[in-house]
Amino acid sequence: MKLAQYLDATYLKLPHQANLSEVETKAKIIQLIKEAITYDFKLVMIRANYIPLAKEMISSVNSSVTVGTVIGFHEGTDSIANKLVEAQNAIDLGADDLDYVINYNAFKRGDVSLIKEEVLKGTKIGLDNNKIVKWIIEVAALTNEQIASISEFIKNIVIESFGIENAKNVFVKSSTGFYKTEDGAPNGATFESVKIMSDNAKPLKIKAAGGVKTKGDALKMITLGVERIGTSSAKQIIEEVKINSEY
């Protein structure tokens, strides 16, 4: 197993969210891309405006690193039409993966018709353009029962509409990493939530994102059925692997 190929190295903060300038933010993105190339991570997950920069840097050294971006980030409440415009823009810029934030608040309200339309249209535009599609369900905003229900709902829509042969190209993803929780509760992937996702979304793939910061956490996620891990700690995880392998 090559752990680096499970890792989506991620930086999604806007300049004002990190109290940085545009120049400083771009420097962070460049460093992330360089690290992804050096360590052979699966993907860099960045904002859409940086996709051309990433593609140019990656292709210039013939690296196999792919590039993903987020759609409807981070609340998921954008209209379906707006999400599709965002998705098409990302495709036009060269994105390989489209990570949509599903309208989990609509799901919690019981508006399953909106969720069905969103998953159908968002998945279709991705698959039609040979992209990987991921649906972020924001587990910290959901009960365990809701996590199970929405994971199964997405699975059923994808398989019924696009066939089981396309399941390999669609993920259910845990979190944005931006959700605000109370009392210091985890806002990202937990072992419990990922196990529920895996039990209910398979044969769709699972991506754990948010809160995975160590080699131990990453390996445990993989044993739970995860095939991608979104993390801002990708370099640290792989450095931990290298240190441990020297003993």
Descriptive tags:
9 helices, globular, 8-stranded parallel β-barrel, alpha/beta, 247 residues
Low-confidence stretches: none
Q: What overall geometry do the principal axes of the alpha carbons give? A: globular
Series of secondary-structure elements, N-terminal to C-terminal = EHEHEHEHHEHEHEHEH
Strand-residue proportion: 5-15%
The class by helix and strand makeup works out as: alpha/beta
Number of strand segments: 8
- Kindly state the percentage of residues in helix: 40-55%
Question: What is the overall number of helices?
Answer: 9
How far is the N terminus from the C terminus?
19 Å
Radius of gyration: 17 Å
The main β sheet shows up as: 8 strands, parallel, barrel
What is the arithmetic mean of pLDDT?
A: 96
* Order of the strands making up the biggest sheet: 1-2-3-4-5-6-7-8
Verbal overview:
The chain has an 8-stranded parallel β-barrel, surrounded by 7 helices. The protein has 9 helices and 8 strands. The chain has helices at residues 22-39, 51-60, 80-93, 104-109, 112-128, 144-162, 191-201, 215-223, 234-245; strands spanning 7-10, 43-45, 66-71, 97-101, 132-136, 170-173, 205-209, 228-231. It has 247 residues and is an alpha/beta fold.
Set down the secondary structure blueprint.
Layout: E1 7-10, H1 22-39, E2 43-45, H2 51-60, E3 66-71, H3 80-93, E4 97-101, H4 104-109, H5 112-128, E5 132-136, H6 144-162, E6 170-173, H7 191-201, E7 205-209, H8 215-223, E8 228-231, H9 234-245
Parallel strand pairs: 1-2, 1-8, 2-3, 3-4, 4-5, 5-6, 6-7, 7-8
Helix pairs in contact: 1-2, 3-5, 5-6, 6-7
